Amino acid sequence: MGMRRKSNLEERISACMGSLLYVEGKEFYQKNKDERIHLLNLKEIFKNDNPLWLEIGCGKGQFALETAKINQNVNLIAVEKISNVIIDGCERAVKEQPANCRFLNCSAENLPCFLSDNSVERIFLNFSCPYPKHTYANRRLTYHRFLSIYKKLLTKNGEIHLKTDNQGFFEFTIQSLSENGFKIKNVSLDLHNSSFEGNVETEYEKLFSSQGKPIYRLEAYLN
What we know:
The protein has eight helices and eight strands. It is an alpha/beta fold. It has a single domain, classed as Rossmann fold. An eight-stranded mixed sheet has the order 1-4-3-2-5-6-8-7, with helices on both faces. The longest helix has 14 residues. The model has no long low-confidence stretch (mean pLDDT 95).
């Protein structure tokens, strides 16, 4: 059963356009490739030149908003392709008015339309859908077609920080990162029983850890 569409979604989205930078609607796909380019002016948006962090698949935005609150010296854009989900984080942002956190309603493959090459210092992939069936592997956010996008977006010393509860997806990710030129560090096979400090939990993470599931985590970077 799919998620029930929230009432008055279009009106609620419109009311969040201060915190929500762009909504990738049907008209986006009716444009040609060049017309889809809508590069964001980060300095104009955030009023500073601070490093940019990006969460892809932010869900309801809890991790993004909490991380931005803790790290006032960075700017954070939280990306989610499902409007019905991202609206919760956007509405919270409208109330809290974080100076360094914004939302972007688009698919990961279209991020180069909004962000310049070498503009992102850190990418967070938190509990991405594992798409366990082999035939759906190309939808995984650590499949090579997505990693090629991240390579373009990341700064020279940029990193990917990933968390998941799915062992199969974690193993797939390690192999995919390695095959595509990434180095891996700070691997944890049970994050909540490790010495790692400063972890910000997501909604899914709280649920899975309460069920006794281990949380897998890694960091990846390019040479």
